[in-house]
């Protein structure tokens, strides 16, 4: 045990101590322990007191802080001193944000004592956070100060004070900001007035109270009507910039380079953009004064190096790219996708004339491409040297292209779909904040696989170059660049960004200014991290509701797509160029006009296609792009339409405003049209028949579908005005025509113009939709209805009835064809009726009703007339056996003839003059009464309808097509002369034939017209006037006056066919050569026409052992009933065997791997390994093969055609004494005369007649006399 200091005791000594000493020792030890305990307690009390003092101090500080906060809250705020309610509304949340930021800063400072979770922050991080808080306080203070200035000085002055505040802070001695701002504004107004003279002297400034602005209260187009859309209140102070997203973080340098200064007034910015981009009068007051041209910098900004640029940023792409195709492009470059193999021989092409016309531009472009690493000079000629060309670009700029049409033929072209500007209607909402991004030299960011550089060469000023980057002109370029960019847009959309991407243009929409700043910062940072170069001159990064995208102005402030003033000016200038010399307009100028018209289709809709069809037709008549075309009256009328109406097309609503939506189903059959309209739960039905010249076979199905839709719209006119109509039909070609706007065929174009005029007049928005046939069953049924009760009184008889019982006000049972009064009711809707279904109308006074109902509705007519207590003149048939006859008769007991409600009667004679047949039976020869039959017998009426249908299918479709045009023109001529076309008088037919004779070069038009007259009259059951002596005389005169020169082509002979085998059928022959040889050979050995040749399906060719080949022809010109025919071709063996040739063609072309299809097909003749197309060749292509064969044989190509093979085969068979019957059967001729036109007799056969007349010297006279006596010739 330790003792006092300086002493120590031994245990052996303790035993020797006395009791007193031990007690004294214990007392000393107890004293020492007490002292130590007291000292410890004293220390503890001191520490506790210190802790309590510190706690009290903290509580006192907190109480002081709370008291200060309470004092601040109770103190009057700056917003309380503001008199402007709009300013107060904006300032109050800013003051709350200022208080919250101050509290946050105090809390942050309180946690920096080393014990909080923030103790791990470094000093730099703490200073950074303090700096952000200070910036937030300054921004809020500046915003509040701006609002205070607005309240005291006005918005205009306050805005100018913001710009002058920094300068004023540097010079305290300067006059007040308000004075300087007012002075600056006065100077600006004066300068603006000087620049604007003598245009507009008054320039509107942005109003102090936007809600009462004179601009927003205007009623001038295209501003929206009040009540539909109200412009927003201006957002005057931007929200603080939020912290950027963690992935990726934009660098400060990148932000300072690309991010624009914050816009304090997005509404005002939008109005200024509308004034600058459009020519709308209501925005003219918001145009900025012209800016002085900025001095050009002596040193131009360096062009970015693009080669391997994306490859250097591949780590960024790896984070989100999921496509192996895109990753391979980023890592190794784009490999050209060969169809089979690259070109085998080097090629050198000369540059286009456009490159030399703009030589300075090309030289500068080549220099720029070299600086950016897009091209590379080479010392030797590349494998493929393609021509350079220059094409116009937007806004009168030029673009250098590499014409790679030769190379593109070797490449696989992948189909894909671009994103459309029309997607904005679905993505955007009113008042969205918009910005656009445009990449600089977008294609040139994509590297080309280095071994393929040699295929992308060109030459300029004696130097060879190769493209190392993706060039303009390469067919898959759009697909490749779009696929790469879609990986980036996919990552943006996963984050919730709303955008539209079109090649290298990007459109973004944001809900508010906070989202706008966040999305824009993130997008620009991603583009920098990806290695993509942004074109700052083309980007629109300011906070606005209006941007220009893909040539159009997108305006979410007023909800419209708008045309730019540049677009209108370009089209107007191009139209003026065409109108200066309409008889000789350069083809490129016409193409420019049509292209500009089509480019407006977002705003103009189908009108662009509807009023440019004749311009396209004129353009198609060009011989080359450097030729001139002549504009006819129809094309000139279209130019005048756009010249006069262009100012009316300025905008289109982004979001449809039609509140009334109608769904219309339509269909057209061979004999009538029909459809139904759905309005809620109600369904209205319409139906009508075709006229005789409009039925199946005379008009095309497309014409009937379009005409049926037009008549359906006219029938439902009272229900469709001022509505948006969805027109649903099962005709895909009609949907295409209505969507694109118009057709190249005149008779279809005229219907489209009528549709456009009707919809415009009645303010109908027509929206076509296609649906499968099985979903259009009701409209199909309505189009096939036959109204066999469509008969009525003759005009003379009705006049007598009207004098006796009239006058009448309404015809209750009628149609557009047999109506007797202007006001009528129909069973189905049709053009013109006051109502459909007369039983839904009130027949009571003051209406005076004329009723001639179908026999099946007589009972219902009587019942409805009695219920309405109506005055009715009822016309019925004298069918005393009908079930409804007793309803008209009196009682049996009284013996009265008619019921009491019948006040008068009139009996018609049984003569046929009292009634006229219905629309379905308007032909004299089909009149049942004239044939002694009961015209109202239901069975006979149905059989008459069947007979009418049979007359329509009794001829081939080609016959209808052949005669439709001549008959339509004849009918129009008859209408102008005021005579009937059906039936026709023989004299008028002969006169019309004389009219044709004046312009015809051959008798063919007269023959065709005569056949059309005969066909239509016989189809109608009428005698044809073509057998009349006058008509026969006109035909004979045509044959004598218009002598048709023989155009028979010369035949190919057997020796010539053998020579073609040697030229085109060698062992190394290509698929293209075998295809040409097979075409000529089949026409020779099988006597095929062109139609027969292209109708053959390869799967219908049957090889029968070593004997022969059988070819099935599904239809032919002479196969009237389409039963098909089989041609037998013998296997000859040797190098000229046609059967072996077809087998070789099937093998080389690998037909079995391509599926069913034509035997003779178009090919790609430019590639070394040819491939088949799906479609057969057109007539001109096959004709060129025959003419090429003639040229190779040293013959005149003008004398040979597709019939040369058929004539040669028939001539060869006849020369070798094959029987006429077999030749006629093999060639499928129907007459010996037709067959004889194809056969050329041998000279010996032609001389056989004169050689066998008995005048030869070697025949003795005695033998000749004996022959004459035996033949009884004396």
UniProtKB/TrEMBL annotation:
Task: List compositional bias (Polar residues) regions by residue number.
Answer: 1-16
Pfam families from the entry? RVT_1
Disordered as annotated region, ranges? 1-24, 181-270
Task: Give the Reverse transcriptase domain ranges.
Answer: 372-554
What SUPFAM superfamilies does the database record attribute to this sequence?
A: DNA breaking-rejoining enzymes, DNA/RNA polymerases, lambda integrase-like, N-terminal domain
Q: Where is the composition biased (Pro residues)?
A: 223-251
**A GO BP entry:** DNA integration
Which portions of the chain have biased composition (kind: Low complexity)?
A: 209-222
Q: Which keywords fit this entry according to its UniProt record? A: DNA recombination, DNA-binding, Nucleotidyltransferase, RNA-directed DNA polymerase, Transferase
A single GO molecular-function term is: DNA binding
Matching CDD domains? RNase_HI_RT_DIRS1, RT_DIRS1
From what superkingdom does this record's organism come?
A: Eukaryota
The biased composition feature labelled Basic and acidic residues covers: 184-203
Query: Domain named Tyr recombinase: which ranges?
Result: 1047-1252
Q: Which InterPro entries is this protein grouped with?
A: DNA/RNA_pol_sf, DNA_brk_join_enz, Hepadnavirus_pol/RT, Integrase-like_cat_sf, Integrase_catalytic, Integrase_recombinase_N, Rev_trsase/Diguanyl_cyclase, RT_dom
Q: What is this protein called?
A: Reverse transcriptase
**Which species expresses this protein natively?**
Klebsormidium nitens
């Amino acid at each position: 045990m330790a003792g006092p200091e300086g002493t120590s005791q031994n245990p052996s000594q303790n035993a020797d101590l006395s009791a007193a000493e031990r007690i004294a020792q214990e007392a000393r030890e107890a004293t020492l322990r007490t002292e130590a305990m007291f000292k410890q307690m004293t220390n503890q009390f001191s520490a506790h007191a210190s802790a309590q003092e510190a706690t009290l101090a903290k509580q006192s500080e907190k109480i002081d802080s709370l008291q200060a906060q309470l004092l601040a809250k109770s103190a009057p705020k700056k917003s309380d001193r503001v008199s402007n309610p709009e300013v107060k509304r904006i300032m109050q949340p800013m003051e709350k944000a200022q208080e919250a930021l101050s509290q946050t800063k105090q809390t942050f400072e309180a946690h920096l004592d080393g014990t909080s979770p923030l103790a791990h922050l470094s000093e730099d991080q703490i200073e950074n956070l303090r700096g952000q808080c200070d910036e937030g306080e300054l921004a809020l203070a500046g915003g509040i100060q701006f609002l205070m200035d607005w309240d005291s000085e006005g918005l205009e002055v306050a805005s100018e004070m913001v710009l002058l505040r920094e300068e004023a802070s540097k010079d305290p001695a300067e006059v007040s900001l308000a004075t300087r701002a007012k002075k600056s504004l006065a100077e600006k107004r004066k300068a603006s007035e000087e620049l604007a003279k003598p245009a507009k002297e008054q320039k509107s400034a942005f109003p102090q109270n936007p809600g009462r602005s004179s601009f927003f209260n205007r009623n001038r187009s295209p501003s929206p009507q009040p009540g539909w859309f109200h412009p927003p209140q201006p957002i005057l102070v931007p929200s603080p910039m939020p912290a950027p997203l963690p992935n990726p973080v934009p660098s400060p340098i990148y932000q300072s380079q690309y991010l624009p200064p914050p816009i304090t007034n997005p509404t005002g910015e939008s109005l200024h953009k509308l004034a600058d981009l459009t020519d709308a009068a209501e925005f003219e007051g918001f145009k900025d004064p012209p800016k002085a041209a900025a001095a050009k910098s002596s040193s131009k900004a360096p062009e970015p190096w693009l080669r391997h640029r994306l490859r250097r940023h591949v780590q960024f792409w790896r984070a989100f790219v999921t496509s192996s195709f895109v990753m391979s492009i980023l890592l190794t470059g784009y490999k050209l996708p060969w169809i089979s193999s690259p070109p085998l021989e080097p090629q050198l092409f000369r540059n286009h004339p456009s490159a030399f016309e703009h030589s300075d531009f090309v030289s500068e472009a080549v220099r720029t491409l070299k600086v950016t690493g897009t091209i590379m000079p080479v010392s030797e000629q590349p494998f493929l040297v393609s021509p350079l060309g220059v094409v116009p670009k937007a806004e009168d700029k030029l673009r250098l292209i590499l014409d790679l049409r030769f190379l593109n033929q070797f490449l696989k072209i992948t189909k894909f779909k671009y994103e459309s500007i029309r997607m904005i209607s679905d993505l955007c909402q009113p008042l969205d904040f918009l910005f656009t991004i445009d990449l600089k030299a977008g294609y040139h960011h994509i590297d080309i696989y280095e071994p393929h550089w040699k295929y992308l060469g060109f030459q300029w000023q004696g130097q060879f170059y190769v493209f190392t980057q993706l060039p303009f002109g390469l067919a898959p370029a759009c697909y490749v660049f779009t696929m790469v960019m879609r990986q980036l847009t996919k990552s943006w959309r996963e984050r919730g960004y709303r955008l539209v991407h079109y090649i290298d243009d990007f459109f973004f929409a944001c809900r508010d200014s906070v989202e706008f700043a966040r999305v824009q910062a993130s997008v620009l940072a991603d583009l920098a991290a990806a290695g993509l170069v942004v074109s700052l001159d083309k980007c629109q990064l300011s906070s606005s509701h209006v941007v220009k995208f893909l040539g159009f102005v997108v305006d979410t402030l007023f909800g419209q797509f708008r045309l730019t003033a540049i677009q209108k000016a370009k089209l107007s200038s191009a139209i003026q160029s065409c109108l200066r010399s309409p008889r000789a307009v350069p083809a490129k100028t016409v193409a420019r006009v049509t292209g500009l018209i089509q480019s407006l289709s977002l705003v103009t809709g189908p009108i662009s296609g509807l009023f440019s069809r004749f311009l396209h037709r004129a353009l198609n008549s060009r011989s080359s792009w450097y030729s001139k075309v002549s504009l006819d009256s129809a094309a000139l009328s279209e130019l005048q339409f756009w010249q006069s109406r262009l100012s009316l097309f300025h905008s289109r609503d982004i979001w449809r405003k039609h509140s009334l939506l109608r769904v219309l189903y339509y269909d057209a059959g061979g004999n009538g049209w029909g459809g139904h309209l759905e309005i809620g739960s109600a369904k209205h039905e319409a139906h009508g028949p075709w006229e005789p010249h409009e039925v199946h076979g005379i008009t095309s199905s497309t014409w009937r579908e379009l005409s049926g839709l037009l008549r359906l719209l006219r029938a439902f006119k009272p229900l469709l005005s001022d509505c948006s109509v969805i027109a649903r039909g099962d005709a895909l070609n009609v949907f295409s025509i209505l969507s694109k706007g118009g057709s190249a065929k005149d008779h279809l174009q005229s219907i489209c113009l009528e549709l456009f005029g009707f919809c415009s007049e009645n303010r109908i928005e027509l929206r076509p939709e296609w649906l499968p046939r099985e979903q259009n069953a009701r409209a199909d049924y309505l189009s096939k209805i036959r109204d066999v009760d469509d008969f009525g009184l003759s005009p003379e008889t009705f006049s007598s009835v009207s004098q006796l019982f009239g006058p009448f006000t309404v015809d209750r049972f009628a149609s557009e064809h047999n109506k007797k009064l202007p006001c009528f009711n129909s069973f189905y809707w049709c053009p013109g009726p006051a109502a459909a279904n007369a039983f839904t109308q009130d027949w009571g006074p003051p209406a005076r009703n004329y009723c001639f109902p179908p026999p099946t509705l007589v009972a219902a007519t009587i019942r409805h007339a009695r219920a309405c207590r109506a005055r009715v003149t009822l016309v019925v048939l004298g069918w005393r056996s009908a079930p409804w006859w007793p309803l008209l008769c009196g009682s049996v007991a009284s013996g009265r003839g008619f019921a009491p409600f019948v006040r008068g009667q009139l009996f018609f004679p049984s003569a046929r003059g009292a009634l006229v047949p219905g629309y379905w039976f308007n032909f004299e020869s089909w009149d049942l009464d004239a044939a002694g039959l009961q015209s109202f017998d239901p069975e006979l009426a149905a059989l008459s309808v069947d007979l009418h249908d049979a007359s329509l299918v009794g001829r081939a479709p080609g016959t209808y097509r052949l005669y439709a045009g001549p008959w339509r023109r004849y009918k129009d001529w008859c209408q102008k002369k005021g005579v009937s076309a059906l039936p026709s008088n023989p004299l008028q037919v002969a006169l019309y034939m004389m009219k044709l004779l004046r312009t015809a070069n051959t008798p063919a038009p007269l023959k065709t017209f005569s056949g059309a007259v005969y066909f239509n009259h016989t189809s109608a059951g009428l005698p044809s006037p073509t057998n009349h002596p006058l008509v026969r005389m006109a035909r004979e005169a045509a044959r004598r006056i218009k002598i048709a020169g023989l155009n028979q082509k010369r035949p190919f002979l057997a020796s010539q066919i053998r020579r073609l085998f040697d030229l085109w059928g060698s062992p190394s022959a290509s698929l293209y050569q075998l295809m040409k040889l097979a075409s000529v050979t089949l026409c020779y050995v099988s006597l095929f026409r062109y139609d027969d040749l292209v109708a053959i399906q390869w799967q219908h060719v049957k090889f029968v052992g070593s004997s022969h080949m059988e070819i099935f022809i599904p239809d032919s010109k002479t196969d009237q009933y389409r039963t098909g025919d089989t041609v037998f071709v013998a296997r000859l063996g040797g190098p000229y065997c046609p059967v072996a040739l077809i087998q070789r063609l099937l093998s080389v072309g690998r037909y079995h791997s391509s599926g069913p299809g034509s035997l003779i097909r178009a090919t790609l003749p430019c590639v070394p390994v040819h491939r088949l197309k799906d479609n057969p060749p057109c007539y001109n292509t096959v004709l060129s093969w025959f003419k090429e064969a003639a040229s190779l044989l040293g013959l005149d190509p003008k004398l040979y055609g597709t019939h040369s093979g058929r004539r040669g085969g028939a001539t060869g068979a006849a020369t070798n004494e094959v029987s006429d019957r077999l030749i006629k059967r093999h060639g499928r001729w129907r007459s010996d005369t037709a067959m004889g036109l194809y056969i050329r007799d041998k000279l010996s056969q032609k001389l056989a007649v004169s050689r066998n007349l008995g005048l030869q010297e070697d025949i003795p006279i005695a033998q000749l006399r004996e022959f004459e006596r035996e033949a009884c010739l004396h």
